[in-house]
Every structure is written in structure tokens, then in C-alpha cells.
Design a protein that fits this description.
The chain is an alpha/beta fold and about 375 residues long. It contains 11 helices and 15 strands.
Length: about 375
Amino acid sequence: MAVVLAASQVRTCFGDGDQTFAALCRGDSGVAPLRHPDPAGINVRYGYHGDGGGPFLASRWLVDCVRRAVAEADLRPGRQRVVALVGTGLRELAAVEEWAVAGREVPRHRLHFRDALAEAVPGLADIITIANACSAGGHALALAQDLVEMGEADAVVAAAADGMTSSMLAMIGRVADVPTERVRPFDAARQGVLLGEGAAAAVVVSETTARSGLARLLATGLSCDAYHETAPDVAGICRAMRDALSRGDRSAADVDLVVAHGTGTALNDPTECAALRQVLRDGGGDPLITAIKGAVGHTSGSAGLVSLDVAVRCLASGVVPPVVGLRTVLPEGDGLRFALQPVRVSPRLVQVDAFGFGGVNAVTLLEPLPGGARWPAST
């Protein structure tokens, strides 16, 4: 049984969802000099920063998105059984690092997001943090659909948040020969990944009870191949794609738009191209492909839900933004249709990819609602 996305809210380096989609369509990049005490020491000089400062930024971004999503969906926590599932890669590790340097101890429960959301949105039936690398938002979405379909919740807020941490910055700096200047997904001259910051929240409700909505959430396919600590695996990603198609009762030929994971790294981009070719192209499909990390950076656990928001806006607007930073398609992408400029199209089925360390993969399928999407008046 399909469910409906009743709301979607994001925060990226550009601002909210309207501002982010407009920047993507213009081909803008939000890359900026890294706000870090010692960029040279970690071999990272640039990032895609969210707004604000101080500790527990991820919680603040998350609270903002969840509050707006709950209001947009007209939920009544307390009167309805509303559950919040928060996907993340790093939780509040940035605050731990900052306070540790200052000799302060961070309460362990603040690593998770229960307290922040319980205070901000009273009446939530449960709040669960899912620390599942860069596909965490996609896994939260899959669990949200399960809870709604099984009648365990009237509505589920699938959310995610992540900020930059010194340890993660140092890790990406160590694998780069020279500091990456910007993320260039699927480009032959890509240098590597840079981190982005932000949060996202999507509300999932039953199709039978939804008064209106943004899109039909058909299915999310999952896999956990444990192939390598960090390297992606074609077979594992293919399993997630096929799982989504099977759960959604759709064929590869039905997919006409992919919002790809597209990290701009040496291994991910060729691997994702191979999986798209094996599952979609070899299955009779020829989808248009876009990706957003060249504009907003890699937002870690929230990456899948930020891509979901873009996918819904593509369905609603009939416009697909280009892959920002892509100039010359990598050899492994030969024959795949990448959006190099804004494209006017009316997708029937959109696939959203999100892959994480350890081979945790999530692939989501969306389609338009009959009669089109209902967006807030400000959109």
C-alpha cells in the first residue's frame, strides 16, 4: 500500500526548500571557505555551511524543519499518534568535540534528538534517532511507511539532521591528494566530496486518510551489504534499487527521473553509474539523472531527505535542475542522460538514491498524486 507525503521541509546552505530549489535551477553552488580553526591542518578548505553558530546546531536545524513540517501537514500531536524518526550520520558529535576541547562534558543523551524534539513539538508519541550513515534519512522514510501501513501511527515525521565535525572533516581531508575546491558529481575531473550542513523533515500519512499532499510515496528499497567500511558495492546498490521496484510494483522502464546520490568521489560515481545502467538501462529504462551535492554539499544523514524534497519539487514544477558542477561526464556515465541545464519534464516516477558507509543503501520511489501536489501558499 502506498502512502502520501503530506509535507516536506528542508534547510541547506541556501536556506529553505524554495530557496534551495531556486538555487539549483540557477546552477548556483553554495560552497564557501571552511569555518574551522585550522583548515590547512585537516587538508579541507571549503564547505557548504548552514546558518548559525554555537553548540547543538543540528538540533536547532532539525527542530525548525520538524516544526514547519508538522504545521504544513496540519498534524495534531497528542490528538493523533505522531511518531518522529530522525536519521543522522554524526548526531551531535560537533558539540562533543567543541565542549571536549573546552574541558566540558556533554550529557550523552544530548547526542540524540529526543529532548530537543520533545520540547519543541509536545505530544509526539515517540522519538527515535537512527544513526545510519549517509542513507539514514532514507531508512527513516522506509520505517515511516511501515509504521503508517501497519497502523502503528497516524502520521510519522521522517526527519534528519547533520552538521560538520572536525573528525569527519579530517577524514575526508586525509583521502584527498589536494584539497577539494567544490563537489562535481559525475564529472571526469571530480576531486572528491565536501561536507554540507542542514536538516530535513517529511511527513508520511496514509493514502486513505490524507486530505491532500505532495506526492505518493510508493516504496523504499533497502540493502546492507557490508562490502567495505567505506567503498560502495555495485551489487548491494542494485539490490536496493530492485527492492524498491519490487515493493512499489513498478518496472525499471517506469523510472523517468533519478535524483542520484552523486558524491563526486572517485568510487561512488562510477559505482552508481554501473548500478543505474544494470538495473534501469538494462531493464528498458532511460531516465534523466540529476544530483544536488554540487550545490549543497554532502549533508550526510539528511542527504536522502534533501534529495526527496527536490524530487517532489520536480514533480510539482515540471522542472529538473541541472547537476551543478558537472561539465564533462565521466567515462562510466557514457550513455546515461544527465541534466546539464534545467530541463522541463513531467516525470511519472522518480527514484531517489542514498548510500552510506558500510553498504547501507536506501532507494525511494515517488510518483505524482492525481490532481497534482498541494504546496503551501508561499511556494
